[in-house]
Amino acid sequence: MRHRYFFVFVCIVSFTSAFAQHKISGRVVNAQTGEPLPYAKIAIKDQPISLTNIDGSFLIDLKESLAEATFSYVGFSPRTIQLSAATEFIFVRLKPFTETLDAVLLNSEENPANRIIRKAIARRDQNDPEKAVNSFSFRSYNKFLIDNENNRISLETDSTMLEVETIIQTGAAYFSEKISEYRFEKGKDLKEVVLGMKNAGFKKPVYELLSLSVNPFSLYKKDYNIFETEYAGPLSKKAFRNYKFKILDTTNTAQPAFVVYFEPKREQAVAGLEGILYLDTTSFAIQKTKAQLLGAIKLETDQEYEYFEGENLWFPKKQLTRIRPGSGGKDISVFGGVISTGRLQSGGDIISTVLSGNDTEPGLFLTSTTTNYEIQFNSEEKIENPSAQVEIASGAFNPGEEFWQNNRKQPFIFADENLEERVMDLVKEKNVERQIEIKNTITTGYYPVNFWDFDLGKFFKYNNYEGLRLGFGGKTNNRFSDKFNINGYAVYGFKDEVFKYGLGTEISLHKPSGTNLKLNYTSDIIEVGRFNYLQGVNEFSIVEPRFVNINFFYTDKTFSGGLIHRFTSRLNSELQISHSQISNILDYAYIHEGQHLSDYNLSQTTFSFLWRPFGRFLKTPTSDILIEKGYPKFTGQITQAFSGFMNGDFSFIKAGLKIEHEIKRLDRSRTEFILEGNFAIGELPLTHAFHAFPNNGNQTEILKRFSVAGHTSFETMYYNEFFSDRQAMLHVKHQFRPIELNRFMKPEVVLISRHAVGTFKHPEDHANISFNTLDHVYSEAGLEVNNILAGFGLGTAYRYGGYNLPGFKQNFAFKFTFQLKI
């Protein structure tokens, strides 16, 4: 088949070579300063108007053997140059206007471009489709590809994430098509339902790529996303803080527009594009946009709008976003990180070698093109399942060639067919699906080997009681069964010389709602006073900083059965019934009805939930995938212990609620808040009370207490110092913008403030142990410098307020910080 395509290609190229257009490149600059003139106009008779790039460069197609080209720019004298087929490159110098004035009048009138932008901002709600109408719907065709320009063959003469990283590093090519239906209702998010999708070469859909923020819907928002990176909006309330504006032209069309050039003011602090806005001269609505970034890469995005007279509204119609290798220079923000020459440095290292310009893939580029059609306004039809922003319709994956022929809104050219075949070969040859599977599984704390996913957190741990804790664990995956899994672990402590283990199963009852039945038995040790949420604590961490210094455990043998259910994409729940046999390891006893009890039974019912009201989700036929966390989020849990039921010895109620919020800013600084409250009443042994997650060793010397800082732990609070039956904690962290010393060292300075308050109603009921209560406010302040090198940093904390101790040493803590990002 490939030989046939190549033969056809050679024949066509040979036949049309005589009629090929001649390409002429060049640059337009200021004749006095040599500075490039961005978006200068190039007019050639009987040809569409062209614009230079932001560096003044251009590439035009000359249709005739001879032609005149007029180069113009606001504030400069136009220049006409004769071009011919012999011309390959021209350097155009435009002179600024020089006029002799009889009188000079000084006034304080603002830049006319600023007046236009101010009016566009004032009318934003009337022009933004998501504000101007009650509802709308449309269909969209998207083509997304990753390719190498050296391989791509075209007969046309017209002018994510983890998965993306794997595809680029391994396959170096990707091709997908997507047909979606979008619906919007005022007060709700824009909802996408994917009707058809194709991932060339993949037996299973790469769902996460569907959630990539590649093209912004419009530029009216405060910030907008291109290739997973937020940029400052040129029509936001802070537009004049982030951008400079200049009028370049006014179009001579049926609906004329101001052509306004915008340029970032604070590139080092806030990511912004450089480009032009076509703003309607009457309504000041966006008619068209063109924006670029030039540096280590070249990012281009174009957007066209269509006018609807009945609604007096310009609506997004076509979008093109492309990333290519650049000529070097400044770093560029993309995919949530920064591409510098040769390498992407990002928070999640989503792409580490995109468009690097190296010898192996010198021409790698990414392109996403979107066409919107069948646009309708004020429909009565309601959005189904609004909590999922992206939903995959049943049967959407590989719906068949007839579907694509009937729905494609862009031509499927020879180059696309050629790329699709190469991608299919590459995906199979380099086993890209397997590599994506491994990376996705590792992010959840497992490593897949055939039908078994090994639990990476079970191989190695260390603490003061068990010493070295070695073992293994994991669960079966879909290769074993997609209806249930078997999970378990076995570990051995070399200091206490005891085996611990667990065994369980999770049975799928209803995949679309995530309803699963869980059965488990564990025989292990648990830290005294630790409160664990069944839902909401699923983030994987190889390093558990506090675990090393814990020395107050109890043995726990628990049989539990539970039901997990997802009410909506944003609300997960779990109901569990359990019976536990508790034995205290240290000399602790709970005084109950005059008896000192070190061993007792607990029968409990627990309900837990995780609610993400502002999260963004992708709903597939079998699961919900979180694509943007969204804040605030809420985690809650309530437990009832029953006396006399299943031999339970005590009756009590425990509850916890945690609220997490995060504010991210365009300058890459962020502020994090965590507020948590715990409450218990009844016959409560110390094993099931609360502590505030202390993380300070009990040694006298500072350096002997040197350890790894935790995320939500009190670094100056000593182990076993405080226990409560009701408490509240507040954690506030502010991370400043990273300090970019070089490509590999970008430390982050973090200020921390933590506070805790609580009480214990009957501390006298707990024998053979002394502890304090948090009746006064416990406070500490901290400073961290994270990511100094390879994820390592340093931190300090100081204890003050109601529980300040005498002497500096007792109040001060010195810590390692470590941030492992997979």
UniProtKB/TrEMBL annotation:
Keyword terms, alphabetized: Signal
UniProt xrefs under SUPFAM superfamilies: Carboxypeptidase regulatory domain-like
Record flagged with keyword Membrane: no
Signal peptide: 1-20
A Pfam family assignment: DUF5686
Name used for this protein in its record: CarboxypepD_reg-like domain-containing protein
Protein source organism: Salegentibacter flavus
